[in-house]
Design brief:
Length: 361
């Protein structure tokens, strides 16, 4: 008869599952949660262990079912269960509870939570990455077609200016040259960064504080910037200037959407065993820029990372596409969720070098 697998092997398997695994004691106090559960609840295991099931799920009917399962010893499964984990964070899951009876540990309850939204999220991220790649290819081709005749136009205007003796006529050639330069600068901005990231160890909070100071100096006094940082986030290997530019574009965008008053929240957290597109990373930094402004119009939400898409009359529509391009260069991604009173731009940046490709259906 084969011997049972060692405990450390079982623990490694559980800690690398995408499925959330929780273990409750007979009083429905949490005894264990795996890294997938930490990611789901966005709270570390150290802060969650000892928490009651009612506090975690905030669902009287679900807690009553858990108590009944403990009393009867019969497992149960809820399909497509809606869970409100935190305010305004609603997810759909398959929820399974299995009573465990152990002579030494007493009665315990094993809970498995399989997030059904995960495949939808991966599909959405793949679409964003594909959209960003297609946009860069299109812009590069368009820039090439614009730059060549633009250079000829500027050169002809310069030659014409040298031949003109009338100062009033030279004013027209000056306008042609300056407008050609402006279009050249616009095309260069659409192309985004020309150089590869100059990577070095950086502290994400030092970057966020730099961005906060810059935006606070230029924003109206009625706009508050609140920080909610996770001090345990390790350094990441990245280009400091490019990350500052990406975050600055997003925070400035939030400030402009608020106009004269409102609150911007800068929040950082870590995610374990997290998938960006089709690549799974051991550790990912999640940086959120949250504002309580009017929100992104529904007809624009799918296209906010495309060039020239803007809801402001004075906007260029380049800030967010450039930010997305800079974050993509670091293996990351920017997502957007918006409704009136709460808009969240989420930056996902890999913190660890260890990663693997996964197969998705």
């Amino acid at each position: 008869m084969p011997s049972p697998p060692p405990a450390d092997l079982i623990r490694r398997i559980i800690e690398n599952l995408h499925t959330t695994v929780l273990l409750f004691d007979a009083r429905l106090n949490l005894r264990y949660i795996n890294p997938a559960g930490e990611m789901l609840f966005a709270v570390s295991a150290g802060r969650m262990v000892g928490t009651t099931a009612y506090h975690l799920f905030n669902n009287d009917g679900l807690v009553a079912s858990l108590r009944a399962a403990l009393a009867s010893g019969h497992p149960f499964t809820e399909r497509e269960l809606a869970l409100n984990l935190i305010p305004r964070h609603r997810i759909t899951v398959d929820f399974t509870a299995i009573p465990l009876r152990d002579p030494k540990a007493g009665t315990e309850l094993l809970v498995e939570i399989n997030e059904l939204d995960r495949q939808l999220r991966i599909s959405r991220e793949e679409t964003l990455l594909a959209q960003s790649t297609a946009t860069r290819t299109l812009v590069r081709g368009l820039a090439h077609e614009i730059k060549n005749p633009l250079g000829g136009l500027r050169g002809a205007a310069q030659l014409l200016e040298r031949e003109l003796e009338n100062v009033e006529l030279k004013e027209y050639t000056t306008v042609i040259i300056s407008e050609a330069d402006r279009l050249q600068a616009l095309v260069d901005r659409m192309l985004g960064p020309k150089a590869l990231p100059q990577r070095a160890p950086v502290n994400i909070h030092e970057i966020m504080e730099r961005v906060r100071q810059l935006v606070r100096a230029e924003a109206p006094p009625g706009i508050r910037i609140v920080c909610d940082y996770d001090p345990s986030i390790p350094e990441l290997i990245a280009d400091r200037d490019q990350l500052i530019q990406a975050m600055l574009n997003m925070v400035r965008n939030a400030a402009q959407s608020l106009r004269d008053h409102g609150t911007i929240t800068l929040r950082t957290r870590t995610l374990r065993q997290y998938t960006i597109g089709q690549t799974r990373h051991k550790l990912v930094a999640r940086i959120e820029v949250i504002d309580d402004g009017p929100g992104v119009p529904p007809e624009m939400i799918e296209n906010v990372f495309l060039p020239m898409v803007t809801g402001r009359a004075d906007g260029t529509g380049l800030g967010l596409p450039i930010a997305q391009s800079l974050i993509n260069l670091h293996g990351g991604l920017i997502e957007c969720e918006s409704q009136p009173g709460r808009t969240v731009f989420t930056v996902l940046l890999p913190l660890s070098r260890g990663c693997q490709r996964i197969a998705t259906r």
